[in-house]
Design goal:
Peroxisomal Thiolase, Chain A, domain 1, seven-stranded mixed sheet, 12 helices, six-stranded mixed sheet, 338 residues
């Protein structure tokens, strides 16, 4: 059974385990500090497909990450009871087109860049409740597909502000079940939508940081734990601006995350060398960092009890053009050593 | 606990109950055959808000349906553990903006027009597993917002083909918990993505019918039941073209649905009088019909055991313009008398 231990916070008696995970990224990501840890790199933005969108989905990135995660779990697609997936493309077509060939019962998720944590949360509930023996959790983003959908055609070469983040070209996939040894999911907190009236679509970090702070504080309160109980808190993807705001917001509530806080958007790129301004972003950012570095460190034992807090900005180009603010959300997953 | 009884088919020992439901629709829908059954009607497409999108979401329709469903369940927003919601607008902003004021832990869903069944499926898993005491399930669509996003600016007054469907302006909301008497959820089947290479975005019924057939047949096979065991099968929203195809596809597999089949897209409008071509569509179509007519009939006892099969077309304007086919999906919920 699953225990409700607070508003939106749940704990798993029967902890779902990570049975396999994989990350696929683009060339720029492969040149960053985590480059050696990814399962596959696509060196060309189209990767032989006709469009950026096809490269993100069916023919390539998301499909490849899911395939690799299932192989590591020693499962065929027919063994997987359900897949939770989502992405940034309108109507989540990166996922529907990316995963349809597998024929796995499909539940599309939309949490913007918080999607990886959301899919893990749903997958964990399915596995822990007995509704699924194996659940696949997948997400992706693609710089070129996102850039032209949200901002300008690639050919314009748009100027970026200092607070802007760079959408990661990457996909992460995780199979949850009962038999993995790398890491298990002990608890989770479902995010609430926080709207701090940020209207600058080039400053997503500021829009998402309050949601991350609220979710982390709620989790500590509901579980009666504190920052000192965890080896690390990984947010994704606040970037430098959002990370600074998160630390401030938490400090005001008496929580000093100190060097226990890391942000996936800052881990994946070398900001000094890679011209990504405030850091990385996109569903694929926290997903690819989780499915390479973080779960890798858990499997090796250098991390034993962590919080993975993926953050999302729930705007669209329509709401931005209509002058609406950018609501943020953050879902939290507590992984413990397997 | 929840039992896996087939690939993607689950049965609830501890059946989640409908504690309250509500439907809000637009003027045209209020003039249709179900007009008297809706909880609230918005007579103007903007309903006093600045934009169609705002009318769909925060200020009005989706918010009002959720509020009314919670009131009928005698719950405040703070009593609800989580909300599953989605819509057709890019990045599901109808839901994120529509529900954020409630402060309920939020999990965005994307299943196109299958979203109502998907949210019910997820809500039922949360309640039955103990992860939530009360889960809110909401979706909406808005004719004007969808028309200008997917097709043309409203001002163009576009010509429609005979197979085209009319996007319903409507929202439906359902609170699931343990204490309702109207109806309970006994089982569910998660849809798989079916791609029959339909590329005509004005013929969604044809694109979705194969998915509905596959889900219904899989449910019958997994549960070892047959069409004769159910009072009715409600699909939403295949329209006339898709309904005819569904009947044919099922008949070829030896299943004669006969007059047990009804389609929400055909129930909500009077096709002869309301100029809606092949029928209604949109997330709000099956949602508003379920939360008025169908669950109303279950509460009154004229229906006791039904299948609700919401269907979705997983395309975007980008995939359509790139010449891609339209993949379909259908999720199934088995409601029984409470």
């Amino acid at each position: 059974m699953i225990k409700r231990i607070g508003l939106g916070t749940i704990a798993f008696d029967n902890m779902p385990a990570v049975e396999g995970c994989a990350a696929v990224v683009g060339k720029k990501e492969s040149e960053g500090p985590l480059g050696a840890l990814f399962d596959k790199v696509i060196y060309d933005s189209r990767d032989g497909a006709e469009t950026f969108e096809a490269a993100e989905s069916r023919s390539r990135m998301q499909h490849a990450a899911a395939q690799s995660a299932m192989e590591k779990a020693m499962l065929r697609a027919a063994d997987v009871d359900c897949v939770f997936a989502g992405d940034l493309l309108n109507q989540c077509v990166g996922s529907s087109f990316g995963l349809m060939d597998f024929g796995i019962p499909y539940l599309g998720q939309y949490g913007a860049c918080s999607t990886m944590a959301q899919t893990l949360l749903m997958g964990a509930v399915m596995v822990s409740s007995g509704a699924a023996a194996h659940a696949l959790c997948v997400t992706s983003s693609h710089f070129c597909a996102a850039e032209r959908q949200y901002r300008f055609p690639m050919e314009y070469g748009s100027v970026r502000t200092p607070t802007a983040q760079w959408t990661v070209t990457g996909a992460g996939a995780c199979v949850l079940g009962s038999s993995g040894k790398a890491a298990k999911i002990r608890a989770a907190t479902i995010g609430r939508i926080n709207d701090y009236n940020i209207t600058d679509a080039n400053n997503m970090g500021a829009a998402m940081a309050p949601a991350a702070a609220e979710t982390i504080l709620r989790f500590f309160s509901d579980t009666k734990t504190a920052i000192g109980d965890y080896d690390a808190v990984f947010t994704g993807d606040l970037g430098q601006v959002g990370s600074d705001i998160l630390r401030d917001l938490l400090l005001r509530q008496g929580v000093d995350v100190g060097d226990r806080h890391r942000d996936c958007g800052l881990m994946i790129f070398d900001r000094a060398a890679q011209d990504v301004h405030a850091g990385g972003s996109g569903c694929g950012c926290s997903a690819s960092v989780l499915c390479s570095k973080i779960l890798g460190d858990m499997a090796q034992g250098s991390l034993r009890n962590i919080l993975f807090v993926a953050t999302g900005a729930l705007l669209s180009t329509t709401t931005a053009q209509q002058g609406k603010s950018i609501p943020g959300i953050a879902h939290l997953i507590n992984f413990v050593a397997g």
